[in-house]
Amino acid sequence: MSQEPLTESIQHYLREIYKLAQSDEPVGVTALARAQEVSAASASAMVKKLTALGLAEHPPYKGISLTPAGERVAIEVIRHHRLLELYLAETLGVSVDDVHEEADKLEHAISEELEARIDKALGFPTHDPHGDPIPDANLEWPARR
């Protein structure tokens, strides 16, 4: 994988590809563009960049998939986002309706040390305020409720 810094945009695309891949359908550029609210050309350009960075694969006429490195980044971003949502709601009293937008801004700036402190302060939670699972520090998903 390249040592180029991963921009917020790259992280958002990786997270979205990961989420879209959870269905049984192949992840296509059109679906990705729709989810990211961008043109198909923009999504296609980003998929090419992700492929060049070794974070995704997109064989011709096949769906987009993440490499293990890309999947790791996606799960880490999801972890940061969901921990932040819970922290904002439970500790700072931010409305559950407002935590998503705030967490979306903060998820890219949080250090691993702060992530660990938030996790510990919240008692190592397994679900965010919306009921979505939070991967643990090893990026493993919690057991289903």
Structural description of this entry:
Helix content is 52%, strand content 3%. With 145 residues, it is an all-alpha fold. Strands 1-2 form a two-stranded antiparallel ribbon. Helix 1 crosses helix 4 and helix 2 (29-36) packs across helix 3 (40-52). The model has no long low-confidence stretch (mean pLDDT 92).
Question: What would the keywords be for this entry?
Answer:
two-stranded antiparallel ribbon, 145 residues, elongated, Diphtheria Toxin Repressor, domain 2, mainly alpha, Arc Repressor Mutant, subunit A, 2 domains
Write the layout of secondary structure elements.
Layout: H1 8-20, H2 29-36, H3 40-52, E1 56-57, E2 65-66, H4 68-90, H5 99-106, H6 112-121
Antiparallel strand pairs: 1-2
Examine the secondary-structure arrangement and name the CATH architecture of the largest domain: Orthogonal Bundle
Number of helical elements: 6
CATH T-level topology of the largest domain: Diphtheria Toxin Repressor, domain 2
Give the full name of the CATH homologous superfamily of the largest domain: Iron dependent repressor, metal binding and dimerisation domain
Q: Look at the structure and give the mean pLDDT.
A: 92
Terminal CA distance: 35 Å
| Proportion of residues in helical segments | 40-55%
Shape: elongated
* H and E order: HHHEEHHH
Question: In angstroms, what is the radius of gyration?
Answer: 16 Å
